[in-house]
Design goal:
Blueprint: E1 2-11, H1 34-51, E2 55-61, H2 64-77, E3 83-86, E4 95-100, E5 104-110, E6 121-128, E7 131-139, H3 147-164, E8 170-175, H4 182-185, H5 200-204, E9 208-209, E10 212-213, E11 227-228, E12 241-243, E13 246-248, E14 251-255, E15 265-267, E16 273-274, E17 281-282, E18 285-286, E19 310-316
Parallel strand pairs: 1-2, 7-8
Antiparallel strand pairs: 1-19, 2-4, 3-4, 5-6, 6-7, 8-14, 9-10, 11-14, 12-13, 15-19, 16-19, 17-18
Length: 321
């Protein structure tokens, strides 16, 4: 079973609800129209189809209408995801969502705060044969804001994990807007470090222990810890986004001890990877969805996303053998 995460960079539909970014208001000089919408759907569905995933967490989906259109675009390629979920309780411009080939038992939202400045977290419970898997799809506050804003989301998430118990099969994934070693990278950035060195992804979600990264073995003895799968690949590959020449792993997949205890459903070590075919790059950077440099500015119908997708493989263990 392959589970993936992908920030698709603003998949908006063609319905006006008043919360669109100005360049995605349909049928203006920006040319967000049926032609470019279909091209965006075709490009994103190509990426997901070629990843061969069974469950995919998505970020920056405007609506259930846009998610349904993506589901249909995937079906035309031969990838069937009959189950879907998306956040909808908060009136934000974009949402997090999930497509699954396995039945979704329930989907609910973790409210971070009542403010629109924070996106809700999507919790889904999925049935895998006789096992249950809990996925939490995230899109934390961007780095235009200090770390204290991301810590708010991290605390809500960790509180829910403690309620469930880290011995459950739990995956945390999505765009955390945090490097996998944020506690190292943000120390000298006054704009971000307003928390005296404490970070959401490393300290609150406990992916570090005594200033060292939590390992897979640590999961078995460390209370309420999570393991970041980035440590399973070579260091020079640990990035999904590039901004002003800086490469960061803003997207992550984290697991709890329930997925490394040899009991039922388990992560396959070293199976984590970026999905990075050459067509997803342009000038050695992610080939993001393109907008013209000339005026009037407009969508060109080319490109994919400013993030690279990530994925990991899991196995069902037959405990009766």
């Amino acid at each position: 079973m392959r589970i993936a995460s992908y920030n698709v960079e603003n998949l908006f539909d063609l319905h006006v609800n008043g919360r669109e970014y100005h360049e995605y208001i349909p049928y203006t000089s920006w040319r967000w129209n049926a032609t470019n919408y279909k091209k965006k759907l075709a490009n994103i569905s190509k990426v997901i189809h070629e990843m061969h995933c069974d469950i995919i967490a998505l970020q920056e989906i405007e609506s259930r209408r846009a998610l349904k259109a993506l589901q249909q675009a995937l079906q035309r390629r031969g990838s069937y995801f009959p189950y879907m979920a998306i956040t909808s309780k908060k009136a934000t411009s974009v949402h997090v969502a999930l497509l699954s080939k396995y039945p979704i038992i329930y989907a609910k939202e973790l409210s971070v705060t009542s403010s629109r400045k924070y996106r809700n977290i999507l919790e889904t419970k999925i049935q895998i044969d006789s096992e249950y898997l809990y996925l939490f799809t995230n899109h934390w506050k961007a780095k235009s804001a200090p770390e204290s804003r991301r810590i708010v989301s991290a605390k809500v998430l960790q509180k829910r994990l403690v309620q469930l118990g880290h011995d459950k099969n739990i995956i945390l994934l999505g765009d955390f807007n945090s490097h996998y070693e944020e506690y190292r990278t943000f120390k000298k950035k006054r704009k971000h470090n307003n928390t005296k060195g404490i970070t959401g992804i490393n300290h609150i979600l406990k992916t570090t222990l005594h200033r060292k990264a939590v390992t897979l073995q640590d999961l078995l003895t460390c209370k309420n810890c999570s393991y970041n799968l980035w440590y399973d690949i070579q260091k020079d590959q640990r990035w999904t986004h590039q901004y002003k020449g800086s490469k960061e792993a803003l997207d992550s997949i984290l697991i709890t001890k329930g997925l490394y205890n040899q009991k039922a459903l388990d992560y396959i070590p070293k199976s984590f990877s970026r999905f990075d075919p050459q067509y997803l790059f342009k000038r050695n950077k992610p080939y993001r969805w393109q907008r013209s440099r000339s005026y009037p500015r407009h969508h060109t119908g080319r490109g994919y996303s400013d993030h690279l997708p990530i994925y990991a493989d899991f196995k069902i263990i037959d405990t009766n053998e």
